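Team,

Forwarding the record for the chain on the shared tracking sheet. I've put the sequence and predicted structure together so nobody has to dig through attachments.
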Amino acid sequence: MRTFKILTVAAITILGLTSCSNNDDTTPLLAIASETVSNLHAPQTGGQGQPIGGEFTKFDFSTGTTTTSDTDWDIAFRGTIIIVNGGVSQGTNDEPVRNGDAAAYIATNTFEGLTTADINLLVQDSETALAIPTGSNNGWYNYNPATFTITPLAGKILVFRTRDNRYAKVEILSYYQDAPSNPDPFTDEGRYYTFNYVYQPNKNVTSF
């Protein structure tokens, strides 16, 4: 009788531990964040034949805010240039050191229609090229020399792997302060980004 009781208690204990282990393995996913950022200022110095400089404005998807951290940033802006915290520096003035694993590519789609990041398309910044290309019609914008305006290209969605292997998609809406519908570069101040983004906070989950 004593042996039976000991075995029964042991069996119940093992069953309980197994149940707890199964419950611990089922971790609920964090909610996807969908936000709009307005008037992110990305100033630069120089230009028009002079060396471009000035600190990049860094952005952290996990907090949804700009940051001055040397490490906790995913993407950064200066003028029309967007860099990622992954790869290597091009050696331009005031360019931050990459110390994360961020990467990016540009998808042709609608913001709502792009539902999964394609990891096979991701590239990092390099000495010769940025993951998000620069120049009119090369990356995210068009420059109109007749009106001197910079306009986001329709249907171009920026897809990012963050520094710590989460994913985000970005739709740039405007390059001018307060996002005027018909910007006038002589009266509307430029280098102010407004963009929509969706951030997938669960590690290695590529769906939006």
